[in-house]
Amino acid sequence: MRFIFKTSYAQDINLAKHGGHVFWYGLLALLLLGAPWLFAEYWLAQMTFILIYAIVGLGLMLLAGFTGQFSLGHAAFLGVGAYTQAVLTNAGVPFPLALLCAAGLSATVGVVVGLPALRVKGIYLGMATLSFGFIVEEVLARWEKVTGGNAGIHIKAPDLFGWKVDSGEGFYYLCLFITVAATLGILNLLRSSTGRAFVAIRDSEISAQSMGIHLARYKTLSFALSAALAGVGGALYAHKLQFISPDQFNIIQSIDLLLMVVIGGLGSVHGAFLGAIFLITMPQVISLTKDYLPAAVGQAPGLQAVVYGVVLVAFVLFEPLGLYGRWLKVRAWFQLFPFYRQGMFKRQKSFQKSDRLK
User: Fold this and answer.
1) How many helices (H) and strands (E) does the chain have?
2) Domain for residue 8, yes or no?
3) Cβ–Cβ contacts within 10 Å for residue 316, how many?
4) ω before 283 within 30° of 0 (cis)?
5) Which is more confident, 54 or 215?
6) Which domain holds residue 146?
7) Which one, out of 193, 214, 285, 311, has a CA that is 20 to 30 A from the CA of 336?
8) Which secondary structure element, helix H or strand E, spans residue 227, and what is its range?
9) Are 244 and 152 a contacting pair, CB within 8 Å?
10) d(CA 89, CA 275)
11) Rounded CA gap, 266 and 271, in Å?
């Protein structure tokens, strides 16, 4: 087992805690940089989708995993970013400026949606965000002069001040750069006082308020940052598909995004990436294995939904910490063997009962 001897407070906030992190993340960086030469075009496209969903997952993880705010309409922010990017790109605006506008408009919408979070929480906040998702979907379908309505809208290739990114490899590297930048931004945010305030609100709003944390400010900021990342992901999503329509940003998409962070592991940056990998690879696994199943099962139209539901229920019952939580247990088993104890990761009882005093 590795023991880290710390001699300064700066070691607590280092991104790489030890040499093993530097080695493995460096190896991962080399793999991602060499992906266009190592994988076929189809799998490179799937990796691009993983990067795009990871960006959206980082935003939703910040909101749900680190701030404790429940959202059932996150696909609406995805749609706002996608349509903003499509309209501005088709109008001739360079890709970086259009991306900033997509993130800014999504963040502004996130602030508007975050206002109900100041007075409601839990399932009631989920209902409020769900209603907002329906409103955005209807606006995208009815505002035909701008969005094209239900007929959808095509989008041009990204234009980086004269350089057209019209190849799969070039767009993959563009998504990789933005994903790395978003990840480093989230990691640094969580190490700051703002990130600690988010976590304090998640653990106990009353305790956070008693420590001087402004609940309204930080909740609204969390919604804005989460919506901005969803808008960036939506802009890249639109460029990758080259065609978008309102039905791509419905309640099913919102549930998929929530499923992504829950299965990946709430409260961890790694969980956003693991959940994105699950969300993209699971349909591939189902399509590859259904030919070996009986015809009545393999050809059933709702097979994917059933598998998703079974997997979600299984994780909620047996592995509430998600894929990243399972990895932590496996790692601890190898590090502590033969002294590993099965109940080490059981949920601790909460001794904070002040939330019940109204």
Assistant:
1) 16, 4
2) no
3) 12
4) no
5) 54
6) 25-254
7) 311
8) helix 215-241
9) yes
10) 30
11) 6
Q: Which residues contact 112 (CB under 8 A, 6 or more apart)?
A: none
Dihedral sign for Cα 120, 124, 127, 131, please. Answer: negative
pLDDT of residue 346: 58
User: Cα(166)–Cα(240) distance, rounded to whole angstroms?
Assistant: 10
pTM of the predicted model as reported, rounded to 2 decimal places: 0.87
**Which structure tokens are listed for 322?**
């998600």
Query: For residue 118, is it within any domain?
Result: yes
In whole angstroms, give the CA distance from residue 61 to residue 37. 32
Residue 307 covered by a domain? no
Does residue 148 sit within a domain? yes
Q: Contact, 236 vs 96, CB < 8 A?
A: no
Distances (CA, A) of 73 to 46, 79, 223, 279: 24, 10, 12, 18
Please compute the mean of the pLDDT values over residues 234-238 and round it to a whole number.
Answer: 91
Residue 61: is its pLDDT beyond 80? yes
Most confident option among 278-282, 310-314, 344-348: 278-282
Evaluate whether 202 touches 68 at the Cβ level (below 8 Å): yes
How many CB atoms lie under 10 A from the CB of residue 14? Answer: 12
Q: Which of residues 166 and 347 earns the better pLDDT score?
A: 166
**What are the CA-CA distances from residue 54 to residues 93, 100, 152, 169, 236 (Å)?**
26, 18, 25, 18, 12
Residue type, 300: A
243, β-bridge pairs = 154
Q: Which of 277, 176, 160 is nearest to 168 (CA)?
A: 176
d(CA 30, CA 234): 27
CB of 117 within 8 A of CB of 129? no
89, 159 contact by CB (below 8 A):
yes
The residue assigned the tokens 């790109």 is 89
Q: Name the band, by pLDDT with cuts 50, 70 and 90, for residue 342.
A: low
Number of compact structural domains in the chain: 1
